[in-house]
């Protein structure tokens, strides 16, 4: 039993296991999921919104925000319905509430808005929960 303020592993304070199913999704998996989601969003934006990834910013107009809009939509739709974004699910993770309830509809919206801002996602605590997860009371765990 750890008696000092330092955790033996990420998720210990939350009552999560050190590894395996139910443990905190580690940084490598989270970055991989983010890349999968953003590549998928870029492909979808290119196919359906006319996004031109090679256009100069002055020529791109609003289409330059296409991939980010699709990325946000994927997050907001898939987290409450599938338990995580396509990238999360492919890499064996899901977003859950700390109290075990359903994530609901507002949490994915707020979480995604903070994720898009980027800074809250790169500031995280000893349990490897970014500010975007801390604000809405969720954690990304392995399945």
Mean pLDDT: 89
- Could you give the distance between the termini? 26 Å
Q: What fraction of residues sit in β-strands?
A: 5-15%
What is the count of β-strands?
2
Unreliable stretches? none
| Alpha-beta content class | mainly alpha
Main β-sheet, in a few words?
A: 2 strands, antiparallel
Identify the quaternary structure here: single chain
Helix content: 40-55%
Q: Which sequence of strands runs across the widest sheet? A: 1-2
Please give the domain count.
1
- Count of DSSP-assigned helices: 7
What sequence of helices (H) and strands (E) makes up the elements? HHHHEHHHE
Rounded to an integer in angstroms, the radius of gyration calculated over CA atoms is: 17 Å
Architecture overview:
The chain is built from seven helices and two strands; from the N terminus they run ααααβαααβ. It has helices spanning 27-49, 57-60, 66-82, 86-90, 106-117, 119-122, 131-136, and strands at residues 93-97, 138-142. Strands 1-2 form a two-stranded antiparallel sheet. The longest helix has 23 residues, at 27-49. It is elongated and about 50 Å long.
Detail the topology: elements first, then pairings:
Blueprint: H1 27-49, H2 57-60, H3 66-82, H4 86-90, E1 93-97, H5 106-117, H6 119-122, H7 131-136, E2 138-142
Antiparallel strand pairs: 1-2
Helix pairs in contact: 1-3, 3-5
Keywords:
143 residues; mainly alpha; two-stranded antiparallel ribbon; cell membrane; transmembrane helix; transmembrane; membrane; RDD
